[in-house]
Design goal:
With 83 residues, this protein is an all-alpha fold. It has one domain. It contains two helices and no strands. Helix 1 runs antiparallel to helix 2.
């Protein structure tokens, strides 16, 4: 019974983390589109703003996505140990 409860808890954590990754990827995609639009406009400060968004948002989101996916891989690869 305890193992079943632990399995359900672990599955819930995995599902939550998968949703976080999905949402981070959606946000990242939105910012990538904004960066492309700014670069295409070629207004006075747009290129600088695009660079800031790329480094401060897109790149940081990618770091967090990779870290979260690493946690998910670890959770998936380690079987639950019975107590």
């Amino acid at each position: 019974m305890a193992a079943d409860k632990a399995h359900r808890a672990r599955k819930a954590i995995q599902t939550s983390l998968e949703e976080v990754v999905l949402h981070l990827r959606q946000i990242q995609s939105t910012v990538v589109v904004a960066v492309a639009a700014l670069r295409h406009q070629c207004a006075e400060r747009d290129e600088d703003i695009a660079d800031v968004l790329q480094r401060s948002v897109v790149d940081k989101l990618e770091d967090q996505i990779e870290r979260t996916e690493g946690v998910l891989r670890t959770l998936r690869s380690r079987p639950l140990k019975p107590h």
